[in-house]
Amino acid sequence: MTARGQRTSRRSRGAYRGSRSRSRLAKGITAKGDFRPPLTEEHPASVTSARPLLRGYIHAGAALVAALGGTYLVVLSKGDWPRQLSMLVYGAGLTLLLAVSAIYHVHTWTPARRAILRRVDHANIFVLIAATYTPLAFNVLSGWWRVGILGAAWGAALVGVGAAVAGVQLRRRVRAGLYVGVGWIALAALGQISAALPWPAIGLLIAGGVLYSAGALLYARRWPDPWPRVFGYHEVFHLLTIAAAVAFYVVVLVYVLPAPRP
Known about the structure:
By secondary structure, the protein is mostly helical. It has 2 domains: 1-36; 52-256. It contains 10 helices and no strands.
């Protein structure tokens, strides 16, 4: 073989090895044959080193407030154990979402642990949606409306949690659309809710839904991103979720808690 032919052969072998290596990395397999979660569009390798300074700390503080607020609702509903249980589910769901989100976003995790926490974080969004519906549907709705809304909310939550934990890969915009769709299930029972609660409560419920939906849209578009090194688009998203949670909490505390259960 001539010298030119040898150089061509070496280049061909090198290109083959390079393409094979990239293929293995895309599947999450390292050079040593170990499994590593593949990089995704949401979390490239640079995320942990370039994340904003406030990433996760907003939800960390909110988790403490949510734990206290949930406990307060449980204490106030003492003596009515079904109502108390619905408040416990609501408070636990809200606290769980915020706490796991804070743990996930504040610390710099290894790729494997980060992938696990990411799945749990996404699963908890479905849990929060169903948990938020629980005190409202259980204490305000009646008959088949109560059963239907609770069944739809928790059924969708179970499917969403299963898909997230199983690692089903969905595009960011598709996932955000699912959150919004499940979150607006209550529109089906708006007539009965409006008959049971005053208009200020309805206004707060709608405002909370709009804030959650705006947060999902912002999350999907990654905009606005005001100060990427300190307070980026994800922090704006977290603030919107907290504002929405506050609106729903006020409805539960002021209007749902004292309402007679039908």
